[in-house]
Write a structure and sequence with these properties.
The structure is a single chain. This protein is mostly helical. The protein has one domain. Helix content is about 50%, strand content about 10%. It has seven helices and five strands, in the order αβααββββαααα. A three-stranded antiparallel sheet has the order 1-3-2. Strands 4-5 form a two-stranded antiparallel ribbon. Helix 2 packs across helix 3 (about 30-35) and helix 4 (about 65-75) packs parallel to helix 7. It starts with 6 loop residues before the first helix and ends with a helix.
Length: about 120
């Protein structure tokens, strides 16, 4: 079994390209880029400048709701989308991943946790 090229591959999980994200969600590529720019969806930029979008934010063709306030809050602590992806998708003992909390409708709880995390990152 080969090792991932980057430890981030294991942390973030599978990703879409802009084109494949558009196909999976029924959007057009221009709208995917706009949603990424305004933090409605999470986009990551690879070292070679390619924009990728973690698949954990799409289920059955739907985009996770209300992600923008979470990402804006996290950006207040550190302006690093890779770190935000880790925070959203990391497995935690005795607790759902933050992205799963959002999918489950636990927006207020997740936003509160994001505020606490952003504060800690900013220290």
């Amino acid at each position: 079994m080969s090792e991932p090229l980057s430890p981030w591959a294991e942390i973030v999980g599978p990703c879409f390209t802009v084109a494949s994200f558009a196909r999976a969600t029924g959007m057009i590529e221009k709208d995917v880029r706009a949603a990424a720019a305004d933090l409605s969806i999470l986009a990551l930029t690879t070292l070679d400048g390619v924009q990728i979008l973690p698949s954990f934010q799409v289920r059955d063709g739907r985009i996770v709701p209300r992600l923008r306030p979470i990402l804006e809050t996290l950006r207040g602590g550190i302006d690093d989308p890779w770190t935000w992806a880790q925070w959203l998708n990391i497995d935690m003992p005795d607790k759902d991943r933050h992205i799963d909390e959002i999918w489950a409708g636990e927006f207020t709880l997740t936003l509160t946790e994001a505020r606490h995390t952003a504060w800690a990152w900013a220290q």
